[in-house]
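During data preparation, a discrete fold description was generated, and the record follows.
___
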Amino acid sequence: MTLTRLTVQTHGPACHDITREVAAVVSGLGDGIVTLFLRHTSCSLLIQENADPDVQRDLLGWLERIAPSADHPSMGWITHRAEGPDDMPAHLKAAVLPTCLQIPVERGRMVLGTWQGIYLVEHRRAPHRREVVVKFQAG
């Protein structure tokens, strides 16, 4: 078993491609499974298309439509506002997207599709330092 922590510095809502960093962790480790766990409640992990940047833009746009800032008129029902108008919507977005992923590994390479990449999706407006726990288990 191998346990590694990756740090991702974010600067507002965006999809951060972490595929290469995760690939480097599992490189040469043989067959098994890699688990990614995000230690935060206002960002998410996704496996998504990595070929067309419009996919990430559209995803972020959709997330903003389903959970806009708490100061938007449609969000008057939100009571958790202590950390700013983007905090509770970020929690809502993280509630509908995963914070943990598992990917099979074969001969030290993740078994991802041709157009698949691994993304940390930041939901907050302010910069954050995010930590992803990466655990490889042989088997």
Notes: The CA atoms of residues 5 and 117 lie 18 Å apart. The helical segments are 19-26, 53-66, 87-96. The two ends are 10 Å apart (CA to CA).
